[in-house]
Amino acid sequence: MTDEIIKEGEDLIDLGTLDTALEEVAAEETVDSLKTKLANANKKLEQFPNVIARAKTAEGKVKSLVKPIIPTEKKPDAEIAGLKTTVDSLALAEKKRQFGYENSLSPEETDAVFRINPSPTKETLKDPFVEGGLAKLKSMKRVENNTPGSSSRTGKPLKIKSEGTAEEKQAAFDEKMKEIQSR
């Protein structure tokens, strides 16, 4: 603080004394205002006696409920690759199934078409190479199943009267056999 003496009108004022006097007055006001604020806070706390206890209880419950976050482990690349392979094979099987259904192909025929062209279309089926291969597969399957091919020949039914003797039936049979052998 400065010890200068300033002349104000006729009176002389010591600035050092003035500064200390002002500090004392400010300190007294601050202490008084703090005491008032403390009294007000105490009155509010008296109005809510359980607030602090409830706050501490709630804080304890929150701490018990909060669990640490455990980071998840990433799946190994080999496992992911295995899943991708499985999904791709299922997608291919579904694609084959739909293509076979749309074009009235058996599963074996569909597999043969997909071996030739991995993404076939209806135009692929019109290719003479593919048509010939499918015809060959169908004929091989028919041979395996021993199913005769369709025939335009229709035979006349053997007319045998349900009534009649065994000799009459034998005569009709012999006549029919001679007709077949003469062809």
Fill in the keyword field for this structure.
183 residues, mainly alpha, two-stranded antiparallel sheet, 7 helices, 67% helix, 4% strand, rod-shaped, disordered N terminus
Helix-strand string: EEHHHHHHH
Largest beta sheet: strand ordering: 1-2
* Helical proportion, percent range: 55-70%
Q: Averaging pLDDT over every residue, what do you get?
A: 77
Query: What count of domains describes the coordinates?
Result: 2
Describe the structure.
By secondary structure, this protein is mainly alpha-helical. Helix content is 67%, strand content 4%. The chain folds into two domains: 5-65; 77-145, no CATH class. The protein has helices at 15-47, 51-65, 77-102, 107-116, 122-125, 128-145, 166-181; strands at 5-8, 11-14. Strands 1-2 form a two-stranded antiparallel ribbon. Helix 3 (77-102) crosses helix 4 and helix 4 (107-116) runs antiparallel to helix 6. The longest helix is centred in the first third of the chain and has 33 residues, at 15-47. The N and C termini lie far apart (147 Å). Residues 1-11 have low confidence and may be disordered.
